[in-house]
Design brief:
By secondary structure, the protein is α/β, with parallel strands linked by helices. The protein has 2 domains: 97 residues, Alpha-Beta Plaits (2-Layer Sandwich), CATH 3.30.70; 195 residues, Rossmann fold, CATH 3.40.50.150. The strands form 3 sheets. The protein has a 7-stranded mixed β-sheet with strand order 10-9-8-11-12-14-13, sandwiched between helices. Strands 2-3-1-4 form a 4-stranded antiparallel β-sheet, with helices on one face. Strands 5-6-7 form a 3-stranded mixed β-sheet. α6 links the parallel β9 and β10.
């Protein structure tokens, strides 16, 4: 296979990427053409949010060509879609070595140890001897997919560690913003009596139901309007600081007397403002921090 490599300015990088996909390229990526030089330009936004600028000053757009496709014809079609008759002259092609892409992708995801009791195991590592075979260990079989929550992010680690220390014997849990369902599934395996997993994304709900089935646990998963009335002994939400602040009245009022509220997706510098948003209902404090992120915890009076 071959890749078509084009250099272009910031102004057309996004439109060029879209046009390449529209004319049949198998994949398109945009790179900083100045990467690894003294003029390399950082490009990032708030965690979980898109950056305001979607390209660098100088860009390298890389498109994977289908077999047998003439790159010159591709460029003519792209020019027509962009409404230009000139330009896009700085391009080249390069060979892509054959590889087992499935195996290469899977090799990036091995078993993940979380604290002392939890292991997250992709299906292709199901029988990996590195995972301890002990009664006090729970394993969560989870493959990378459409929904957030593969277990690699510090916020997921923090929530799982809290659940491993505080979930035993709790009658019920609400996981709000469930993503892959990893927290609700872990709660059930850690001894929770019943779990509700809620997300605004239908794909996340589907992923949660699938992952629960794979892990052999029963839980309820649905969109927010499907959540029944009532309170829970544990409410956990691993989202981001802004939606957590907006959701403060609802989440706090879902915590049963004597119950626990666990929040993550919060940067250390955001901890105080998130805690303040919950202050009218619960006193929240940092339970643990990791890699610049925190897990906040609060308990409602009995």
């Amino acid at each position: 296979m071959r890749e078509l490599v084009l250099n272009c300015p910031e102004a057309i990088a996004e439109a060029l990427s879209d046009a390449l996909l529209e004319v049949g390229m198998l994949s398109v990526s945009v790179e900083d053409a100045d990467r690894d030089t003294d003029v390399e330009q950082p490009l990032f936004g708030e965690p979980g949010l898109e950056p305001e600028v979607h390209a660098w000053q100088h860009n390298r757009v890389v498109a994977l060509l289908p077999d047998g496709v003439d790159p010159q014809q591709v460029l003519e079609k792209v020019k027509a879609r962009l409404g230009i008759s000139a330009g896009l002259d700085d391009w080249s092609t390069r060979e892509v070595p054959d590889a087992d892409w499935v195996r290469l992708t899977q090799s990036q995801f091995g078993p993940i140890e979380v604290g002392e009791r939890v292991w997250i195991v992709p299906s292709w590592h199901r029988d990996d001897p590195v995972v301890p075979d002990r009664d006090d260990i729970i394993t969560l079989e989870l493959d990378p997919g459409l929904a957030f929550g593969t277990g690699s992010h510090p916020t997921t680690h923090l929530c799982l560690e809290w659940l491993a220390s505080g979930m035993q014997g709790q009658p019920s849990l609400l996981d709000y913003g469930c993503g892959s369902g990893i927290l609700a599934i872990a709660a059930r395996k850690l001894g929770c009596g019943a779990a509700w997993a809620v997300d605004i994304d239908p794909q996340a709900v589907s992923a949660t139901r699938y992952n629960a089935q794979v892990n052999g646990v029963d839980l309820q998963a649905g969109l927010p309007d499907a959540l029944p009335e009532g309170r829970f002994e544990v409410v956990v939400a691993n989202i981001l600081s802004n939606p957590l602040k907006v959701l403060a009245p609802m989440l706090a009022n879902r915590v049963a007397p004597g119950g626990h509220l666990v929040l993550s997706g919060v940067l250390e510098r955001q901890a105080d403002e998130v805690a303040q948003a919950y202050a009218p209902w619960l006193a929240m404090s940092v339970w643990k921090a990791r890699d610049g992120w925190v897990c906040l915890h609060g308990q409602r009076s009995a």
